[in-house]
Amino acid sequence: MKTTRVIAIFFLLTFISLNGADEALIEDLEQNLMAPCCWSGTVADHGHSEMESSIREMVSQGLTRQQVLDKFVATYGEKILAIPKAEGFNLTAWIMPAVVFVLGVLIMILYFTNRPAKVVPTQLKQNIRHSDQIEQELMEMD
Question: How many CB atoms lie within 10 A of CB 65?
Fold first, then answer.
């Protein structure tokens, strides 16, 4: 009798842990697939939909994460993936933020290191034509 209970508890715990693993896989897939109804968010953002039930069905059949993703890519194309694959033209989505950041930092460095020196008013006086005459007329106005 004790052996039967132990075996039953073991199977129950195994079923619960597998079910928890399946739920984690389903959540991961819902976060990584775009909702084809409007293409504006992931499946997880849209609540209960036909796509969620398709994901649950595929996971319950024992398909792996990659197999499920491959099936949806075959149906909808790569735009179904929330995170694009880092290959081909999609590399620009991964590289461009870093390139823009580096360019921004370089522009700021060049701007702040190559600013012209402040001009002292005595230097200005030498560069202005007829500055003595202007000074004299200003003095007369006071």
Answer: 13
Closest to 80 in 3D by CA, of 114, 49, 47, 34: 34
Would the pTM of this model clear 0.70, i.e. be above it? Answer: no
Percent of the residues in the chain that have a pLDDT greater than 90, as a whole number:
11
Domain count, the chain: 2
CATH number of residue 9's parent domain: 1.10.8.640
Given 83, 104, 127, the domain boundary residue is 83
Using CA atoms, how far apart are residues 136 and 18, in angstroms rounded to an integer?
95
Backbone Cα Rg of the chain: 34
> What distance in Å separates the CA atoms of residue 91 and residue 99, rounded to the nearest whole number?
12
